[in-house]
Amino acid sequence: MAEAAGDMVSRRTRGLDRAFEILEFLRVKRQPMRPNEIASEIGAPRSSVYELVNLLLSHGMLDYQGGDGRVYLGRRLYFLGTAYAEQFDLMRECDRMLVRLAEETRETAQMCLLEGRKYTVAMMREGIRPFRISSSVGELVSIPWTASGRLLVSHLSDQEIVDFIPPEDFVLPNGRQMQPSEFIAQVRQASRDGYFTFNSEVENFTHCFAVPIYQADSTCIATLCLVTPREDGLRNREAYLASLLKAAEEISEKLGFHPETKAIAASSR
User: Fold this and answer.
1) C-alpha span between 50 and 207 (Å, rounded)
2) Residue 269 pLDDT exceeds 50
């Protein structure tokens, strides 16, 4: 009896894992797909994918879109997302800060996170200048391609960084093979400086600024960023950094972070 109950729990757990895998796959893919295509892409049995897709459809987690039986993320996920945003102070605070940064600098302001082993823009406010720079919110990007990436992995040891980032992600958009040791050196320097800036590896003619948001244990859980035209960014570097650092410090303090905590954590590595 106990063994049968254990098998049932195990099957339900696997089914739940697979359902989340389907939702995450569609989020990353960003287009409606047929269940058989989903099954092929994620390497799952078609029968179980069809069963789970029907279950997710019945609960509003998926909706039919595009015809031909294709499905995509459902409207109920939107309501879950808004409920999450209402209760999660970090998101509200970052949105408020992004508005302030965009107004102060007239540049595109972003809040960025790690998503799995990739970087993503979680929130963005465009600047009011005529020439605007924007990125796709939720798009997954290789960590070494980004200014924020140097800060978001700064709590990891050198070996943990090498193990965490897929080897192919050290190939930059221009085709140059970046050595992990070069990236790690930049991570450590960014941690000491408390920011990282560089000419974008992804967008030509842009300069990127990133500063860390720390939680109480001194882990960088997110970054505030500015993406600017290259010449403007270099000309206004000090002013932009000052605005970013002030905003990030205000959020970090509300999360219980104190600078001396980071100093202690750094000395123990």
Assistant:
1) 46
2) no
